[in-house]
Design a protein that fits this description.
This protein starts with a strand and ends with a helix. The mean pLDDT is 97. Helix 1 (21-30) runs parallel beside helix 2. It is α/β, with parallel strands linked by helices. It is built from 7 helices and 9 strands, in the order E-H-E-H-E-E-H-E-E-H-E-H-E-H-E-H. Strand 7, helix 5 (160-163) and strand 8 (175-178) form a beta-alpha-beta unit. It is globular. The strands form 2 sheets. The chain has a 7-stranded mixed sheet with strand order 1-2-3-4-7-8-9, with helices on both faces. A two-stranded antiparallel ribbon has the order 5-6. It has a single domain (3-229), classed as TIM Barrel, CATH 3.20.20.140.
Length: 233
């Protein structure tokens, strides 16, 4: 199944305003994707609208968000149902500092409905670190019935290798996100304790613009994606 499991809606202040639920789902469909995940920063609150848009477009959706740990490491979290995300959002809220967003500097944080109509603005800045370590974030995701994937592990300042220097051997994660096949070889060479078949490897767009959503080039078996989704896709 062709997938892209890392993209941001207009709820994330770093994403363009055109990243609405229906625009995302329809662009993904045009590009030939079969499974997507919209992973806004530290928030699942756009997902009800994305779920509605995905059903209209006929594309499969995995419910997710991108968390930022106290070490400023990004981690994708995926859950089986919207109810799981609502429960876990309470955990996120309890661990997120209350800093007011500055739209003129960071961008809008818009929450829309299933028809891409504005409903409310998230007032808190979402581009913040939680007061929970990477290990604590991973443990919490699992406790709430989810799966976690370390995001862009060799890229950007918010990758685990940039922030910590390596992937901890005792960290409980389910997958690693890379940008190309050669990065997998680099990760394995850097971390001899990681076995290639012991984790799920994702290659996603991290799209903040519609044009950047992946084409139908990255493919995984449905049963593998179903493990991340926590349900049959």
């Amino acid at each position: 199944m062709f997938y892209d499991l890392h993209m941001h809606s207009c709820l994330s202040p770093c994403a363009e305003d055109e990243m609405t639920p229906n625009n995302i789902c329809n662009m993904a469909l045009i590009k030939g994707l079969e499974v997507i995940a919209v992973t806004d920063h530290n928030s699942f609150r756009q997902l009800p609208a994305v779920d509605e848009a995905a059903k209209k477009a006929g594309i499969r959706l995995i419910y997710g968000a991108e968390l930022e740990s106290s070490e400023e490491v990004h981690m994708l979290s995926f859950f089986p149902t919207l109810e799981h995300t609502i429960a876990f959002q309470k955990w996120v809220d309890d661990h997120m500092p209350v800093i007011r967003n500055r739209e003129d500097f960071f961008g809008h944080e818009w929450i829309l409905n299933g028809d891409d109509e504005y409903t409310e603005t998230e007032e808190r800045l979402l581009l913040v670190s939680l007061d929970a370590s990477l290990a604590e974030c991973a443990d919490a995701v699992h406790e709430y019935g989810g799966k976690c994937v370390l995001a862009h592990v060799l890229d950007r300042k918010n990758s685990v290798t940039q922030q910590l220097g390596f992937i901890p051997p005792d960290l409980a994660y389910d997958g690693l996100e890379i940008k190309s096949p050669d990065q997998k070889e680099r990760v394995l060479k850097m971390h001899p304790w990681i076995k290639e078949d012991s984790v799920i490897w994702l290659c996603d767009s991290d799209a903040h613009r519609l044009i950047d959503i992946s084409e139908a080039v990255n493919e995984l078996p449905g049963q593998v994606l179903s493990v991340l989704a926590g349900r049959e896709l």
